[in-house]
């Protein structure tokens, strides 16, 4: 900061007086007296003087170059992310995103204003107001069955033309197709699936899988960097980053996630209770029931409805249960024969058949019926 202070005038010598302009000095009118010599007035008390003195030279200024560069760097590395669907999973992601220094906006059909304020998130009840904030990323955290309705209700014309759209659904081919059909060509698309949730990831995300597919990222360094910065949110938390196509993801998910949820819900129907003599295996089953029961049925229905591989897995599960019952009843039949015929069949070895299911057919092919499988085995 530079301050100006007036300094006292120390006087004017005779040489300085001759340099003063007439506007500063006015000669008095003198009578025509040849024997008297006029005297100059004393001006030391009439002429003020201002001098500059430097009081400080290193104070922070509003347009300080270093702070300006720091602000530009922070702005270039942080994102403005709008979460659409601010339920449990949206809040779960928002907490970590905010902690990493990104700006988070939120919109949902329900009013989560208070919860958003706790998480330092700006909540918008109106989708138009949200889009007018021009976020860098639209992150859809809706349920599978409501995604299409929510996406088509957004005022896309109020967004920047190259906005990045990201989903976190448990199925991938469905949102990919929906995005490509609905969003303008200028918008970028990134399909992702965090393979964890509020329960499994409440302590840490380290080592947990994060699947992603860069469906459509436009040309330009800024757009590629924006996509990478979003992925860095999960990479910085220690997630295991898995690049995978949407079709491949759905094939794997049907054999893992859908089967897991199905078995958990089947066991839930049995109303299993903890006992004083629980084994480790039984504890695992109880935990499975607890984890799957905490998710909504809409999620499970979406896994079935929007993954074309789910029906094949459900049919295979049914076949596996039937083959297991056949094997059990086959052993029971042998016991009954021994009781009925006694020693008559001693020394006669009967083959023990164990039924295995055929390999899962490729997508689009129907599973063989039980009668067809039996005919193949006898032929």
Automatic annotation (TrEMBL):
Annotated region (Disordered), positions in chain: 1-42
Gene Ontology molecular functions: arogenate dehydrogenase (NADP+) activity; NAD+ binding; prephenate dehydrogenase (NAD+) activity; prephenate dehydrogenase (NADP+) activity
Keywords: Oxidoreductase
Protein name: Prephenate/arogenate dehydrogenase domain-containing protein
Segment forming the signal sequence: none
GO BP: tyrosine biosynthetic process
Prephenate/arogenate dehydrogenase domain ranges (all copies): 79-358
Low complexity: compositionally biased ranges: 18-33
Upper taxonomic lineage: Eukaryota, Viridiplantae, Streptophyta, Embryophyta, Tracheophyta
Keyword Protein transport found: no
SUPFAM superfamilies: 6-phosphogluconate dehydrogenase C-terminal domain-like (SSF48179), NAD(P)-binding Rossmann-fold domains (SSF51735)
Keyword Nucleotidyltransferase carried by entry: no
Xref: InterPro entries: 6-PGluconate_DH-like_C_sf (IPR008927), NAD(P)-bd_dom_sf (IPR036291), PDH_N (IPR046826), Prephen_DH (IPR003099), TYRAAT1/2 (IPR045011), TYRAAT2_C (IPR059064)
One Pfam family, short name: PDH_N
């Amino acid at each position: 900061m530079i301050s100006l202070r007036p300094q006292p005038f120390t006087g004017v010598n005779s040489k300085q007086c001759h340099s003063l302009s007439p506007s500063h000095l006015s000669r008095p009118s003198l009578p025509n007296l040849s024997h008297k010599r006029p005297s100059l007035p004393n001006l030391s008390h009439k002429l003020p003087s201002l001098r500059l003195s430097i009081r400080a030279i290193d104070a922070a200024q509003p347009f300080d170059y270093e702070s300006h560069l720091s602000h530009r760097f922070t702005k270039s590395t942080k994102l403005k992310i709008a979460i659409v669907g601010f339920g449990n999973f949206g809040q779960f992601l928002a907490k970590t995103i905010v902690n990493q220094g990104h700006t988070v906006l939120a919109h949902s059909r329900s009013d989560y204003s208070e919860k958003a304020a706790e998480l330092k998130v700006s909540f918008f009840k109106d989708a138009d107001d949200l889009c007018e904030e021009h976020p860098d990323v639209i992150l859809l955290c809706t349920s599978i069955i409501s995604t299409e309705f929510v996406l088509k209700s957004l005022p896309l014309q109020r967004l920047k033309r190259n906005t990045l759209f990201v989903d976190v659904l448990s199925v991938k081919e469905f949102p990919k197709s929906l995005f490509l059909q609905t969003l303008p060509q200028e918008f970028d698309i990134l399909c992702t699936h965090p393979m964890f949730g509020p329960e499994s990831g409440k302590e840490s995300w380290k080592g947990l899988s994060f699947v992603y597919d860069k469906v459509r990222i436009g040309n330009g360094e800024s757009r590629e960097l924006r996509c990478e910065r979003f992925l860095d949110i999960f990479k910085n938390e220690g997630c295991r980053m898995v690049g995978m196509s949407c079709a491949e993801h759905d094939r794997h998910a049907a054999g893992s996630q859908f089967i897991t949820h199905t078995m958990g819900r089947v066991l839930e129907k049995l109303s299993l209770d903890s006992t004083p003599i629980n084994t480790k295996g039984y504890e695992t089953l109880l935990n499975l029931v607890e984890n799957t029961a905490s998710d909504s049925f809409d999620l499970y229905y979406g896994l079935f409805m929007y993954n074309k591989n789910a029906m094949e897995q459900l049919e295979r599960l049914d076949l596996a249960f039937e083959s297991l019952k056949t094997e059990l009843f086959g052993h029971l039949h042998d016991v009954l024969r021994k009781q009925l015929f006694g020693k008559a069949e001693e020394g006669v070895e009967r083959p023990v058949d164990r039924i295995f299911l055929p390999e899962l057919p490729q997508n689009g092919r129907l599973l063989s019926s039980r009668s067809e499988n039996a005919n193949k085995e006898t032929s």
